[in-house]
Amino acid sequence: MTANGVDVISAVQRAKLDHRFSLLDVAGKGYLDRTDYAELARQIAGGAQLRFDDPRRQEIVDSLLGLWDILAVHADADGRLSREAWQASVQESVFEPDGFERVMEPVAASVIAGYDGDGDGELDRAEFEAVLMSIRVDAEGAAAAFARLDTRGSGKLSREQLMVALREFLVSDDPDSPGNMLLGSF
Ligand SMILES: [Ca+2]
């Protein structure tokens, strides 16, 4: 990921980062701040079929605000991350060795726990599609993503399959990685 001391990312990685920034910057402000991650957390926690006093709801919120705190190292004096600063923060955290495990696994684990309604440790089609629809992926896109990721044909995605897909989505520079399907086209 480093050449001549300068961090480089591929065109595919940059396209995905651009797409994600645009999805996060719902209001088109041109920057992200803590309220964007709080809103994302509210959406994801709200989409889970959990009672309001269920601790798994708060764990989703806490994990996403924890992610913001990691990314916010490059925020300006007003606590804002421009598109460029946000991309730099992602590169420095998620893309680093062990970065995915350190930065993203806690978020993924809290979301899986919150949406695993039957408690079998995996997400079935309905549980998985509910996650994606909480972040405004449409039903068609969610169904297509499940079909692409359910390589065992079991009708369920294991925690390991979900982590592999999320890692591919976030980090892979292969445009054909199945994990790229997570948030639709980019
Ligand atoms: Ca389940």
From TrEMBL:
Give any GO molecular function from the UniProt entry: calcium ion binding
Q: Where is the EF-hand domain?
A: 12-47, 137-172
Q: Which Pfam families match?
A: EF-hand_5
Source organism superkingdom: Bacteria
Mind telling me what this protein is named? Ca2+-binding EF-hand superfamily protein
